[in-house]
Amino acid sequence: MSRNLQIGLFLTVSILLTTFTFYFWQVFKSPNLLVQDNDKTFALLIPRGSTFESVMDTLKTHKIINDETSFRFLAKIMKYNERVKEGRYEIKPRMGNREALVKLRSGSQDAMPVTFNSMRQKSDLIQRVGSKFEFGSDALGQLLNDPATCQKFGFDTTTIVCMFLPNTYELFWTIKPEALLDRMGKEYKKFWTPERQAKAKALDLTQTQVQVLASIVAAETNKRDEQPRVAGVYLNRIKRGIKLEADPTVIFALRDFGIRRLLNRQLTVDSPYNTYRYAGLPPGPINLPAPATIDNVLNAEQHDYLYFVVNANFTGYHTFSKTLSEHLANARLYQQALTRMKIMK
């Protein structure tokens, strides 16, 4: 073989090796997902029973993948195309094929932050929480409306919502609805420490009753520093056998959350939630009170107030009174302020 031929062959092989090396580097290491400068982490949701092609459709639809051919090539080598695992996977900007496929193939899904806040109705909880997971709202609704399931956790179908303490939880998208309830049950037990249980007992209330009262307090005022005083008013009325006459319970009974001014005729609505008609606490919470509000009920102020009304200067605070005559005078000032502002309903 002539020297020139040897050199030519060497150069050809070198070029081929360089080309293949570069290609395989692109296939394995080069950024291929979310390569645009403004791309942000994408949550790839892969439901149970998904195929490789359905995953590819999602990646293409959301313009996550840059070079489809190289991704498919490596997926076949790594046999990801043969077994797709369900889950929620965070695809980060400038991710390489191998990094992404190792994550997807291993089923190393990412937990997601799920926040429960002050939802008013059980249906809100079912819809807004259930829709965040693969199982959906219907599956959660079936469990929360099942007496046997609720009884398992010490609740009925009305009070089961008390188990969902507002907070942010790290949960997997593929969690089963039964597992979600188990997790919430553990969080509920963790919250209700022996110290909190003792405080509830000292108030002569069950844990559920504390949360029901906390939901009323939360609806009355969002001023955390005022909540213990408001709670004290209701506790005084309960001890003396006086109806709570809490406006938020009437609004809940009417299911009209746009009301800004209750009318006398609305106070007669026949509902177990109407504390103008029925003594004691309503059968369930009227929202999901925050843990801090529950603590404010457990640490309620001890005083002699029996009444309160929104301050007529609309600072968000209330004016408290010990006698009905004082209260009626304060209420008149508030009603006059509403009229001046043309708030009639």
Give the radius of gyration.
30 Å
Overall average residue pLDDT: 90
**N-to-C SSE string, H for helix and E for strand:** HEEHHEEHEHHHEHHHHHHEEH
Give the CA-based shape.
elongated
The main pleated sheet reads as: 2 strands, antiparallel
Classify the beta-strand content into a percent band. 5-15%
Number of domains: 3
| Strand order within the widest beta sheet | 1-4
Membrane topology: Single-pass membrane protein
Keywords: Cell membrane, Cell wall biogenesis/degradation, Lyase, Membrane, Transmembrane, Transmembrane helix
Main location: membrane
Site (Important for catalytic activity): 220
Explained architecture:
- It is a single-pass membrane protein.
- Keywords: Cell membrane, Cell wall biogenesis/degradation, Lyase, Membrane, Transmembrane, Transmembrane helix.
- One of its GO terms (molecular function) is lytic endotransglycosylase activity.
- Belongs to the transglycosylase MltG family.
- This protein is mainly alpha-helical.
- Helix content is about 50%, strand content about 10%.
- It is built from 14 helices and eight strands.
- It is elongated, with a radius of gyration of 30 Å.
